[in-house]
Amino acid sequence: MSTQRAKLVVGNWKMHGRLAENAALLQAVAKGAGELPADVRVGVCVPTPYLAQAQSLLDGSRVMWGVQDVSAFTQGAYTGEVSAQMVTDFAATFAIVGHSERRAYHRESADLVAVKTQRALEAGLTPIVCVGETLDEREAGATEQVVGAQLDEVLAKLSVQEAARIVVAYEPVWAIGTGKSATAGQAQAVHAFLRGRLAAKGAEIAGVPLLYGGSVKPDNAEELFRQQDIDGGLIGGASLKDQDFLAICKAAAATTAAG
Ligand code: PGA
Predict the structure, then answer these.
(1) Does residue 48 sit in helix, strand or coil?
(2) What is the C-alpha to C-alpha distance for residues 108 and 208, in angstroms, rounded to an integer?
(3) Which ranges constitute the DSSP H helices of 45-142?
(4) Contacts for 209 with CB less than 8 Å, ≥ 6 apart
(5) Residue ranges lining ligand 1, Cβ < 6 Å
(6) Of the candidates 185, 243, 241, 244, which has an alpha carbon nearest to the alpha carbon of residue 212?
(7) N or C: which end of the chain has fewer CB atoms below 10 A?
């Protein structure tokens, strides 16, 4: 039963936050997360300069932390890059890879996203691999083709054991930061498709957590999280407000066995 499955809720702060306001947000999230049932896992992906702050304020809490990107290189003369290994020095769990903002504004190709996924896995991080179609692609009926190709490019580079360690986030580009979430039905349909694509690679991979992202808010989270193939959310704007983020985590808890 979908409603019995554990949930994962991860905040994506994007390029927001400063030291002082982060401290208040991290402390409030750590405190609130302590009241959630064990089958709701929570994480926040902060801007990389604040990784040490996240570690010091979240260590010992229920909240895991991570980054929003990693380099495709392991080390060397790559000015401005941050390697997955460096991120692990701060006991991080997650690295978002292939977010649509990076694909669009930093021209990240599907191949580059796949290499970044490999680097994250090698370092022991859990990559949160983002896939999603634009509005034009949806209206052209190409949603499955687009997200399927994005996922396949990553899966092609991974062993079954590696693929079993990823998280996938379906984030329709037209729903990100627009206030216009996919309906629960629209999201579930794409999640079911992605689940099938994962299962085709191996039974071990069928259970990979599939997060929905794109204008998740306290008032639409529960309906989304109740869908059969939605295992949680990747939360942008609403993760910057402790009360909204915790309300979304509580909505996840309402859909699990313990909740
Ligand atoms: P949003 O962003 O929740 O602000 O739409 C989600 C994301 O881009 O991860």
Answers:
(1) helix
(2) 23
(3) 51-58, 84-88, 100-105, 110-123, 135-139
(4) 8, 167, 168, 231, 232
(5) 12, 171, 176-177, 213-216, 234-238
(6) 185
(7) N
DSSP assignment letter at 128 = E
Using the mean position of ligand 1's atoms as its centre, give its distance from the Cα of residue 239 in Å: 9
| pLDDT digit string, tens, across residues 209-227 | 999 999 999 999 999 999 9
Q: Looking at ligand 1, which residue's alpha carbon is closest to its atom 7?
A: 236
Query: Strand, coil or helix: what is 251?
Result: helix
Minimal-distance CA residue to ligand 1 atom 2: 236
* Cβ-contact 238, 244 below 8 angstroms: yes
* 106 is a catalytic site residue: no
Contacts of 187 (CB under 8 A, 6+ apart): 170, 172, 181, 212, 224, 227, 230
Residue whose C-alpha is closest to residue 70's, from 41, 52, 45: 45
Cα 77 to ligand 1 centroid, rounded to whole Å:
32
Domains of the chain: 66-229+250-256 (3.20.20.70)
pLDDT tens per residue across span 4-45: 689 999 999 999 999 999 999 999 999 999 999 999 999 999
